[in-house]
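re: ur question from the group chat, yeah i did fold both. here u go
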Amino acid sequence: MGDNITTITEFLLLGFPLGPKIQMLLFGLFSLFYVLTLLGNGVILGLISLDSRLHSPMYFFLSHLAIVDMAYACSTVPQMLVNLLDPAKPISFAGCMMQTFLFLTFAITECLLLVMMSYDRYVAICHPLRYSAIMTWRVCTILAVTSWTTGVFLALIHLVLLLPLPFCRPQKIKHFFCEIIAVLKLACADTHINENMVLAGAISVLVGPLSSIVVSYVCILCAILRIQSGEGQRKAFSTCSSHLCVVGLFYGTAIIMYVGPQDGNPEEQKKYLLLFHSLFNPMLNPLIYSLRNSEVKNSLKKVLGIERAL
């Protein structure tokens, strides 16, 4: 064992074991998706900052979600693209640990931001007369800072538990990025504490928040059904359906990955699920919010009209 344990300076990400032609095709496809992710979320941020009609708590949280989605994709996709071009190019130990930390930070932060957005919709629909008094800018700022701080803190706990572990040769990670479970499989020590912390963290930031979102939307549904105006019901459903689509995509894949039965999910299946979770979700979020949100579409038309006039 002493010969197998060494000071690790780099890891090799195995990524997708496919032929060179398919890898080049994937490189082009994933590069396009990456650009669309940055462009789509950048447009959302730009519209919210430019249009004063979008300066409300709902869009304040949406702007934070767009920032998280961009950072989320940036933490994994560039390294994946490098590996598709040069599968033999390793990632440094420090770079791998940083990638794990950033991915966990942004994933946890997004979980909590989705909860804050559901709370905002709950107050707006169930307590409309008190909305301005409850959702003040001070409260919104505290909720956003709490989401970011919690994400950093919980990711830091996982990193502190991961760094002291000894690693064995070969240093090949069967993933397209330094996902924490895949990294733990290379450790030459008992990792039960780390694995239990991952499970406990997943339950606390996935199952708990999802339960609160479900409760919020049960209350919202009851409130919507009490609205007399058909137009009022349609508008309420429209603003909530976008958020529900994002919640379903994000929490669905994450719970399958980290909370569901581990034995029934092959590694390759988990890898592709996480690819959808880390690449396609951030790309789809701005599309969902723009296509199903009339205020965002009207703001975009206004900006495009100004640009044509110029």
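okk and heres the other one u asked abt
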Amino acid sequence: MAELRSRHNGTIAVEKESQPSNHNNNKLDKELSKNGNAEKSDPMIYIIFVSLLFDLLAFTIILPLLPSLLEYYRQNDSSGLYAVLTDRVRWFQQLLGAPERYISVLFGGFLGSMFSFLQFVASPIVGGLSDYYGRKPVLLVCAAGIALSYLIWACSSNFALFVLARFVGGISKGNISLCMSVITDVSSVKTRGRGMALVGVAFSLGFIVGPMIGAVFAIFSDKSGSAWFVLPSLLAFGLAAGDLLVLSFCLRETLPKEKRVKEISSALSYGLQLLNFQAIFRFAAIKNVPKKDIEALRSIGLIYFLYLFLYSGLEFTVTFLMYHKFGYTSMDQAKMFLTTGIIMTLLQGSVVRRLPEAKIKGYAIFSLYLIVPAFVLVGLAEGSRMLYAGMTLFAISTAFAVTCLTTLVSKYGNDDQKGSVLGIFRSLGALARALGPVVGCIAFWCVGSRITYIAGGLLLIYPAMALQRARI
């Protein structure tokens, strides 16, 4: 029994057999209890998990509804904005030579890029504010903004109001980086990885269950009515309101006043640098830390950006590939994404959250290399078996990559800079997701799917090699 306890803890040596048995057990129990408590995750991590799950369920409900929503506004928009934007998208569609039927998908892609760009702008500002005011009040403002966006959606009788709803939602999405800051605040080096993995689990569950709820509305809603989207939008609002209540009554402040930045001007100093992309890649706002830490942040930030830029571009065009090359119906695509989502959830809930701190970098490198054959297989696929094989590798890689990279970057910066560090990090990811789908679409329709996926997969070797060489 004593030997098992020693193995479980990894730091307690088995007592010599010559010592009295009761003394051995009592001493060992005390040590195990003390160390076991140090290893327990703070309850706030689970509050953040519930908050993110509510938020992501609300966010993903709209995804299957977008084609129907765009069709509704095409026929019923009184603001004139839809017609103006459609002309711009049609020009882009004709430039690429994409089929006419993909205009709505391209339109959705541009809306998604706008949403990601707003996150890029908001994340570092929100992170800086939280370093000065504390995590909880800024999280509450973000959650209130997200809830307001769904309420505007419910009232969006024209396309201009719908775009306003997406704008308000995008600018309020700094809550993701704040949630990671809370986890960093309350975690030790050994428990931080499992906290970040729970974020990944929340994303996986949200992107499995939310679209399924949205698909039910898409199938069974009477779209001949003038306000058929009110019910799903009110459900999203209800989930967002639930998130706001959880944060209000269950979350404690995790950044004590003595650890906060002393001047708001320094907390927001990089907010004015948002137009200077170079400053964000250089983490120029992070001051008074060792030079080697800044170099590590820059390395991880660049690797994360390049990975998500290529990844999101290829990920976005997979929908085109399934429909255009394999003739997949919406249900076929739903089965594919359900399969990948379940794989990611199982891995993040079991393996990723238990990774020891010393192995985080190794698994991050493994996941970045694994994405290479994933996209090569997708590019070479001529049948569903090879496509599923590539998408399975894609899911395994995704389960590890972002969680491990986020865990690595969360180690750097002083206590009063964690929000800023993670805000800039999330901002780089949002910028990558804003640009990647546009570039991916251009490549897909100009040079074809095979060249796009194989070239993109091979280019993903660079982030893996860069992380392998980085001194982190």
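fwiw on the second one: The CA atoms of residues 399 and 413 lie 25 Å apart. Confidence is low (pLDDT under 50) at residues 1-38. idk if thats what u expected
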